[in-house]
Amino acid sequence: MKIGIGADHAGFNRKTEIIEYLTLKGHEVVDYGTTSVDRVDYPDYAKIVGEAVVNKEVEAGILICGTGIGMSIAANKVEGIRAALVYDELTARLAKEHNHANIIAFGGRTQSALESKVIVDAYLNAHKEPRHSNRVEKIANMEKGE
User: Fold this and answer.
1) Choosing a second label site near 144 at 20 to 30 A (CA), which of 13, 17, 22, 126?
2) Out of 65, 100, 127, 132, which one is annotated catalytic?
3) Per residue in 3-12, pLDDT tens?
């Protein structure tokens, strides 16, 4: 799977670990930055990854900031994105199954490296459940102002 990943300075170290983990598992990972722990603005990276997902440059996105909160809020401003703030295996799995999330966001300061890997695996291994499609369609219609 081709996965886009982005982080701010607070998520940089965790992003680096997740890229290595996903690459070893055979995924193609596109790193949209940041490239260091120097202070940056998380909305910039949420937008870049969100646009990559919407434009089908990648199949899914992962965003990491201090808590994941800011990244999820910012990514959801990109039309067509359903970014879910996840914090454990269950929320990561349900984000895909029930909400058809195309991006997950979590915290570099709130989850350990091991927890982050479990979250990523749960999300990537989950499948969209068609029985929730009507609800997801309603969200898309809200986004269009309908």
Assistant:
1) 126
2) 65
3) 999 999 999 9
- The total of structural domains in the chain comes to 1
What percent of the chain has a predicted confidence (pLDDT) above 90?
Answer: 94
| Closest alpha carbon to 34 in 66, 5, 69, 54 | 5
Residue 65 appears among annotated catalytic residues: yes
Residue 98 known to be catalytic = yes
Q: Are the beta carbons of 30 and 5 closer than 8 angstroms?
A: yes
* Active-site annotation holder among 9, 27, 98, 132: 98
Residue 61's domain is classified under what CATH number? Answer: 3.40.1400.10
> Cβ distance 48 to 32 under 8 Å?
yes
Structure tokens at 31: 């790193």
Q: Is the pTM of this model over 0.90?
A: yes
For residue 34, what are the domain limits?
Answer: 2-143
DSSP alpha helix (H) spans, the chain? 12-24, 42-54, 69-75, 89-97, 113-125, 133-143
Which among 56, 55, 60 has a CA at the least distance from the CA of 6? 60
Closest CA to 50 of 61, 66, 39, 65: 61
For residue 76, give the H/E element and its range.
Answer: none
